[in-house]
Amino acid sequence: MTAVASRRPPAGRTAGATSGWWLGAPPVIALLAAAGAVAVYAVFVRTRLGQVVDEAAMRGAEVEHQRVVSVLNSTLDGTSLLSIAAVAVVAAAVGLLRRRVDLAVAAGVLVLGSNLTTQFLKRELTRPPLGDPAPNSLPSGHTTAAVSVAFALVLVLPYATRAFLALAGSLYVAVIAIATVWAAWHRPSDTVAALLVTLGWGALAVTVVRLRRRAEAPPRAASRLATLPLALGAAVAGAIGAIGLGAVVVSERFIPGLVSELAAFIAGAAGIAGCTAGAFLIWVWLVAEGEVRHRND
């Protein structure tokens, strides 16, 4: 049976040796996620070059393939506020059924906190008319909603389902995020900021769970069945996105016309996919390390 966490801690690990790192890692990740979101806003919203590159990636989303268009339309249409709320309620209910009130509460905090923060930032952040005069749209509400409920399900469901859920969730979120860019609802930076906002809230929720359970058995380690595919996806897609967006920068600054708008969109989509895989990789590690071993596991 597939499991996201191993039955024993890594060799040489003791509760005393890991307690500081085990409790300290989630708030550090939360701070890094917040800093990342600030950096995305500073670069892609507050600078002219950032706005131009971001806009180029969105303008190039002219998808003509009928099946691709159908998938993107169906995915966006299925991501409604009601469906997201229903999944969030299911996630909390699963936590209660497992007699893990802490996980149910953490899932609720994760979903509510990330979505409320996204709506607040989208309303309050300003976008100077440096390259694109359109109003601010960072972070993406659709992406935040999708990733928050995916994170919540991975958090509350049993080990045997987590690897599959993490991989399926990362694919679903990547499609949602790319679809919002294709539909010209959001720029790539909006979706990356949404991932970081949600990861930050998730790390804070895991911090509370770990503080409550710090006196129990040693934690599990994340399974390679989930981490290896996510790490590979983050590395490959992230590299393609970074190289492609770098080429867009060169095109905008030095060699106009070097990169087509479609190539810019593909680079942006690859970057989104890489960031999504990276966020889920960190999340799988956090929730696996956030659990403890029980005698009946």
UniProtKB/TrEMBL annotation:
Protein name: Phosphatidic acid phosphatase type 2/haloperoxidase domain-containing protein
Taxonomic superkingdom: Bacteria
SMART domains: acidPPc (SM00014)
Keywords assigned: Membrane, Transmembrane, Transmembrane helix
Phylogenetic lineage: Bacteria, Bacillati, Actinomycetota, Actinomycetes, Micromonosporales
Listed transmembrane segments: 21-44, 78-96, 103-121, 141-157, 164-185, 191-209, 230-250, 262-288
Transmembrane listed as a keyword: yes
One Pfam family per UniProt: PAP2
Residue ranges of every copy of the Phosphatidic acid phosphatase type 2/haloperoxidase domain listed in the record: 101-206
Species name: Spirilliplanes yamanashiensis
